[in-house]
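Hey team,

Filing this mostly as a record. A colleague (T.K.) asked me to run one chain through the structure pipeline before their review meeting, and I want the input and output archived in the tracker in case anyone asks later how it was produced. No errors, nothing strange. Just documentation.

Input sequence:
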Amino acid sequence: MPLEKSTWRWDSKHLGVGVDVARWGRGGRALLLFPTAGGDFEESERFHMLDVLEPIVASGRCRVYSCDSVAGRVWIDGESGGAKRATTQLAFDRFVAEELAPAIREDGGGGDLLVAGASIGAFEALAAIARHPELFAAAICMSGTYDLTRWMDGEHTLDFHYASPLHFLPTLGPSKQLDDLRRRFVVLATGSGDYEAPWESWRVGRVLGEKGVPNRVDDWGKDWRHDWVTWRAMLPKYVDEMLAKVA
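Output structure:
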């Protein structure tokens, strides 16, 4: 039986555009699943990620949300300058934290969210929990692209600094944000096969570890490439683990 699905369009005050959102399932802890860079709110469904999550969702342990990759599209559009990309990323962050996450909580009766994504979606998942650990219980980051400097056209703006966990976390001093983040967990899963960049996951792991943030890097080895086959194997394993960890 297909999973129960709902969709709606959100007119974002922070982004100034409409953002499509989908929910699969109804019960359990919420999982916000970010698309890859050019993806939309139904990308995960088209690439069968909901199929592999079906036993978890259908059992009522978890419900899944996804939204358009508004910032991701700007990062790779080949037209926007670095400053606009960073500004859009911060606007997307505010949309997630101040509009989408509260709506998800209200939709399911509250509770901290899980967050996940692959490729640039992994960057979005890491950024969400690093910037807003009061909202997210754990992050599942798969085959992450975490250093977006290459798309900044040689610029390093203040917006980029605060949008990028690799850049703002090393400078994050004693604060409630850091205290909250130290009570969360980040799993950084990667392959070592074609088009993967496991060194980026290890770099994030070191940055988190130096700040006392619980994390783990899992390298699945050279047989796993930067591809949906890899992420379909990874996601249900880690969702099951995180649901047990934060129960």
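Quick notes for T.K.: The chain has a mean pLDDT of 96. The radius of gyration is 17 Å.
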